[in-house]
Structure prediction request, 356 residues.
Amino acid sequence: MQLYNTLSAKERATLIEQAGKERLTISFYKYAKIENPEIFRNHLFLTWDKLDVLGRIYVAYEGINAQLSVPADNFNQFKYHLDTISFLENVRLNIAIEHDNFSFLKLKVKVRDKIVADGLNDDTFDVTNRGIHVEAEQFNELIDDPNVVLVDMRNHYESEIGHFKNAVTPDVDTFRESLDLIEADLKEHKEDKKLVMYCTGGIRCEKASAYYKHKGFKNVYQLEGGIINYVRQVEAKGLENKFIGKNFVFDERRSERISEDVIAHCHQCGEPADLHTNCANEACHLLFIQCDDCKEKMENCCSSHCQEIIQLTFEEQKALRKGQGNSNDIFKKGRADHLPYKKDLRNIFDVFKKSE
Ligand SMILES: [Zn+2]
Ligand SMILES: [Zn+2]
Prediction:
């Protein structure tokens, strides 16, 4: 029984290209009590591998968080299988706006402690006691209310390229930091203000809303299905789009363009740009924003130091990396002192100073 991937990303990309079939990029999550995550994980892998499903899926005692690429031809079978799992019957599937057959190149189903790294102790509050879910239309009305504080629950590199107008975008590296900062800044307003939050697909708000209710906030709302679902609804119902820029996503595509506004800047020259890249130096892999000119000039590197290193042979580079540990993390925080146009606002954070 084959329970793990055997093809490399490159081999997979070739196969997808040869097949020439359309694939859908889908995400979903569900908090549910899973008695044996390992058995559940194996069941998912075996079933989905047969359907040529690819993606990154986390399974834990607390539920499942999945980002997938599914062949359009197999979608009905995939959906049928989901519906056979009691807690996933009719689960909301967020389908990506932009098509890309190469959004995922492997099927990785992993057992984790948590389905979102939240740094919280689960026993302290009830995750199911969450905020009021609002759909796009109601969300649009709600955020016009002057008594609302609209908070982006994502990290700095996500909100930097796109966010809702008038949202507070904490300059944080982790979800955990955000939770504390927002609570501290709003501690006088737990009862009078309406706290409205959003994230990419809704999963982070699921936790955050329950957490803030536990902390005494009386009016907590969350955007149902996150930005992905919001944009779908805006298109389907012809609503006003209040999201500017791009939606950062956690697959090979990196982002989806939602509006034509380019709200970020190249971290190297300061020109308008909103495309994230990873430094070409394998030992660095810093995630940062780079414009096309700098990309060419710097050969996709974050610094001249990294640029020097990529001129070395593969063996020389490997020798240099020895003992440095694995930094091959494509979503590394994206902060570096040598990037002159990466604003670091952590010390002057003020939750009521709204973003432009
Ligand atoms: Zn540039
Ligand atoms: Zn670098």
About this structure: The chain has a mean pLDDT of 89. The domain at 9-111 is CATH 3.30.70.100 (Alpha-Beta Plaits).
